[in-house]
Amino acid sequence: MHKWDWEDSHSQSRRASGESKVAVFIGTFENKVDRKGRISVPAAFRQPLTGSSFQGIVAFPSRRAPAIEACGIDFLEQLVADQMDVDLMSDDAEDPAAQIFYELEKLGFDGDGRITVPSSFREIAGITDAATFVGVGKLFQIWQPERLAEHRAQRRAARQGGGQ
Question: Residue 4: inside a domain, yes or no?
Fold first, then answer.
C-alpha cells in the first residue's frame, strides 16, 4: 500500500504556520450495522484522523443527498477559524457553513473503531443493516448501499444523456 501525500502548497504553508492538516478521505467501503446502530468506520478513514483533538468524526444530515456527511474535527476547526475573518456584527455575516453547526453530532470511536450513529440520522439516510462510506475529499458520506447505487446510476445517466 502506498502512502499518498495529498497536501498542496496552501496546506503545507498552513502546517508551517502551526495550523493542523485537514484529513482527506478517498475510496468506497461497505460495512454492516449492528443491532445497536454501531458501524465500523473504515480504517482508511480512521487513519487520517489519528492525532486529532477528537478521536471520532463529526456528522450531519446531508443537504445534497439522502445520506449522512461527516468529517474530522480538524475540518470543523478550520471552518470556525475561517469564520473569524467575518465581521459577525454585519448583516452580511451569515455564513452558509454556520447553518449546519446546529445539526452536527460528534461521534466518538469505540475501542473497535466503531461509531454509534443516531437513529434520526440513520432514518434520514435509510440506513438499516449496512452502510457504505464514500470519500469525497475533506468530507465523506455514509449511504444506504442501494440508495448509493441508484444515485450513482442516475448521475451516470444524466452525464451520458446530457452529452457531457
Answer: no
Look up the CATH number of the domain holding residue 138. Answer: 3.40.1550.20
| Per-residue pLDDT reduced to its tens digit, 132-149 | 999 999 999 999 999 999
- DSSP SS3 for 82: helix
Q: How many Å is the maximal CA-CA distance in the chain?
A: 50
Model pTM greater than 0.90? no
- E strands along the chain, which residues? 28-32, 38-40, 56-61, 68-71, 105-108, 114-116, 130-135, 140-143
- Tally of structural domains, the chain: 1
Residue 24 lies in a domain: no
150, three cell numbers: 441508484
